[in-house]
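One thing: can you check what follows?
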Amino acid sequence: MKVAVVTSSPPLSEGGHLVIARSVVDALREAGHDAGLIVTPQNRFGRQASAYLANWLTDVGVAHDGSPIDHVISFRYPSYAVRHPRHVVWLNHRMREYYDLWDRFQATLSTRARVKERVRRRILHRVDTYLLTRRVTRVFAQSATIQRRLLRFGNIPADVLYPPAPPRPYRCDGYGPELFAVSRLTPLKRIDLLVAALAEPAAAGVRCTIAGDGEEAPRIRQLVRDRGLESRVTLLGAVDAATLVSRLASCRAVVFPAFEEDYGLVTVEAFASGKAVITCRDSGGPAELVRDGETGLVCDPTPASLAAALSRLAADQGLAERLGAGAAAASREISWPRTVERLLLQDAR
């Protein structure tokens, strides 16, 4: 079968959705299909209409050699605007500022801008609902968090299908003394909450390495200095795949305290490395995957509660090993062959 995997991305951006999309292509090829990735435009605020139009006009019916494309799998907005008679959407998110993050977003706007964005929001809701109910064969959500958002905004039914870890050479080299966090450094990832937790008395002596870059990087560096954590917190910046795998292999456990995360790929990457994950009750996708006391620890989104969880794992290697074994077992339940099989199902909703 010839399959086009389609996702949208802003220029010069590399996010988890692209990692998953490329992993789908690899898994499809491994299963014997002819698959390729198409990256379509996702424009900035004020130019969303042109991005949707560009996706609508993107030809996904015929391959470069003139042969027909049999099946399309699309991801985030506005890639699901592409048209094909067999079109499955595996959604990570719509434009969240116009959905679950609307209250936060509009609070940053002037009165005039708020009026304009409310109009855009209404239009976008109607367009997305039309595309996801009338123009696709089937909708999968990458987490129950996304599934609930689809029902809340548009009453759009979807089946949950969790993405497996990308096909990397994960391994477990033991359970060293340091905790590990990896993420884009943006406000919703709440790395500042992790730094605040490390500064709590309960976490005294806990060491943590933080990898990633983004708009919050200068603020995180300053917070580490202000809290006097330079001797216990290492900021790596952006890391490549080999470094990521190596750090996951040797750490005690992984910390991912994001707010209402769509999915959180690092969770299944940690599981694949035999490592437990510490997350928060309101962390969305990660909180769905982590079973408290079995594959990690789920705590309240406060510095004190997170500090207690950090200290508990940092002080008890045996606990880290037991939870890590549970995480590895959970990872084996989410496989690419089964995922590909579901994404290629021909039955309509």
About this structure: The chain has two domains: 2-164+335-343, 179-332. The domain at 179-332 is CATH 3.40.50.2000 (Rossmann fold).
